[in-house]
Amino acid sequence: MSADGLVKDGLIKVGILISGRGSNMQSLVAASKRADAAYAVALVASDKPEAAGLAWAKDQGIATFALSPKGIGKPAYEAAIDQALRDAGVEVIALAGYMRLLSGDFVSRWQGRILNVHPSLLPLYKGLDTHERAIAAGDAKAGCSVHVVTEALDDGEVLGQAEVSILPGDDAAALAARVLVEEHRLYPQILTEFVRR
């Protein structure tokens, strides 16, 4: 009996939303290819047709969907993304560097089934510029959080966190690079635990 076929039929189908190079998406895909994987990546979608992560996903043989919201408005854009996810059989959505705020309507349609990785130790530093803010505050630690997405920005249940020390002389770029390493480790672990619930 091959590892494909029967085993893959039982995997939870995940859709990943990206806006850029998709480094977290790549870590999620890598985890989906392990023998003990709990999920399969059914679709990678982006609001930026030129996003580098889309080309990478295509090279991996993963279905992709790209649509810019420019000129069509948020409701039509989100309806198209929603349909693409459903057409791919997606059961759980993972936001991986997706830089658009989801509407309350979209979130409610996927209630409790959207995860996000955020580069701070929530509830600290919701939103943007998290590393600059942590350094400016004189914090000893920074890190990342994986949380359930709700209508409120970066406000859902935190499912896991990873810490890194803020070192003397750190700037935002240096800190971001170390936090990103932890994001790549933490996100696949928490997504796996989430889909096995």
Overall description:
This protein has helices at 6-9, 23-32, 52-59, 74-87, 104-109, 130-136, 172-195, and strands spanning 12-18, 39-46, 64-66, 92-95, 114-118, 141-148, 158-165. The protein is of the alpha/beta class. The relative contact order is 0.16. The chain has a single domain (12-119, 145-162, 183-196), classed as Formyl transferase, N-terminal domain (Rossmann fold, 3-Layer(aba) Sandwich), CATH 3.40.50.170. Helix 2 packs parallel to helix 7.
The helix count comes to: 7
How do the SSEs run, as a string of H and E? HEHEHEHEHEHEEH
Structural class: alpha/beta
Estimate nothing, just give the exact number of structural domains. 1
Rg calculated over all Cα atoms: 17 Å
Shape: globular
Which superfamily, in CATH terms, is the homologous superfamily? Formyl transferase, N-terminal domain
Q: How much helix, percentage-wise, in residues?
A: 25-40%
What CATH first level would be assigned? Alpha Beta
Terminal Cα separation, in Å? 26 Å
Give the tally of β-strands.
Answer: 7
Strand content: 15-25%
The stretches of 5 or more residues where confidence is low (pLDDT under 50) are: 1-7
Main sheet: which strands, in order across?
Answer: 3-2-1-4-5-6-7
Whole-number mean pLDDT: 94
EC number: 2.1.2.2
Keywords: Purine biosynthesis, Transferase
Site (Raises pKa of active site His): 154
GO cellular component, one term: cytosol
Topology:
Elements: H1 6-9, E1 12-18, H2 23-32, E2 39-46, H3 52-59, E3 64-66, H4 74-87, E4 92-95, H5 104-109, E5 114-118, H6 130-136, E6 141-148, E7 158-165, H7 172-195
Helix pairs in contact: 2-7
